[in-house]
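Example 3.
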Amino acid sequence: MIDYIGIAGNKPKGARPYFFDDPAVERVMNITMAIATELAVTKERMDTIERLLEEKGILTTTEIDAYVPKDKKAEMERQQSHSEYISRVLRIVQQEMEQLKNPDKTLQEIADDIDKM
Amino acid sequence: MAKNLPPTYDKIATHEVFPEMTHDDRARYNFLANLNKHLAHVSQGNTLAFENRVKPQFVKENGREFKNKEELGDAMARDPHYQTWSALRRSTMEMRQQAGRSLTYRQAEKLTQKVNQLNEGKDSLILNDDVKVPPYLMAVDNHLMPGSYHTELYDGDVANAANYDGGLFVTTAGLLGKYSDGGGKAIAQWLKKNHPEFSPKRILDIGCGIGHNTLPLAEMYPDAEVVAIDTGRPMLRYGHARAMALGYKNVKFVQAEASQLPFESESFDWIQTTMFLHETGGKSIYNIMNEIQRCLKPGGITMHIEQPQYTDDMTMYEKWIRDWDAYNNSEPYWSKMHDIDPKELMEASGFNGEHYMQIGAQAINDLDDGTQKVDEPEDHGRSPIWNVFGAWKK
């Protein structure tokens, strides 16, 4: 079987231009946009599933749009899920805030300390 | 931002050798087509950034205006909006190629089989191993398509041609029509309407690729023999099979190189190139025009659909931003070609300047249900509005 996904991602001839001063920013931008694309694909698939469910008389979009959690347990489970998702996505911000609160030594400095221990 | 929405991908016409696509393949293309349209709006920020901060800042620091577009470009390259838009634009092109190639290479062998079946026993596909891919095509992968028009990963590989066919919709947001043939349709209709007395018996389309702009010429002049040439074998194989699938009987696909046409002098009534010349090279373009002059019959016409040339009343900023594709979308000759005076190019090959013609053309879009408004922001390269120049041989 051809490695179609590998082939698909091949670079074209010619060095790739970078636009941001820091190539790391460019990398993150590209990874983020690829994720945005895949999310869009998933959203379209969800839309398809909702429409088919409606066509088959199983579930309507109105029911989906009107849905609210039925009890406190469901309510908290859903909110907890959002809260955890946000924590995962913004992990780097949490870590940078902890560093701001309690400025930490760099590993270089720690290594120098340990060398004397 | 208010904008016209592109049609969904399912509106594209398919044919027997068109790649099979899953729900998610189409969804990905729907997203990318929308993203391209969106980025045309984001590009307006480049103009704003230029007028509001980059130019004033430069004038303040240097006490003068930009002396050339290179200097202007260096200043713009440091602007955060331009950096963001460029990175997004480049990323979108790369994603389009990856999306297209992943779905076509997934079915590469099946595509080869289908194409071979349609091509078998037909004398209208003429390949020639002696025809070399010209150096200007070997040097770059135009519009970031890895492998370009000529690479075969195995003998009979047509996956990149299928990738090209399926993906035109994305870059032009469906504005070329169901069969991506809006360019060919526009020029054929113009000729028929403006020169109804002209009845070409032999038509040559140079750099036909998959033939999407060739077929409308064959349709408009069904009594003509249409010859389509290219140096990319996958394009020719796929293009020919595509033409067979769509029922065309008066088109031949021939592997030939534009600066060495294997045809008799004065053997064509109409020689056409569509979005081809900007993918040639600085010396070759003159050789190609010489060959066109040689092969055109007296009383015949040659026309070339291209991106707009630089004119004196085009601002330096516009000239610079129209160069974006040259350096960032791997269309390197695009920039230099803009500086050529098309009339001089034709006169250099022996055409009489008095019979030079130049018109504007807009793609004929059979997907437009009346909702596609014309006031879209200028995209400086992706909009299907072109310049056509050419000459009658008299």
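Residues 30 and 112 of chain A are 37 Å apart (CA to CA). Chain A touches chain B at residues 2, 4-5, 7-14, 16-17, 19-21, 26, 29-30, 33-34, 37, 40-41, 44-45, 48 (CB under 8 Å).
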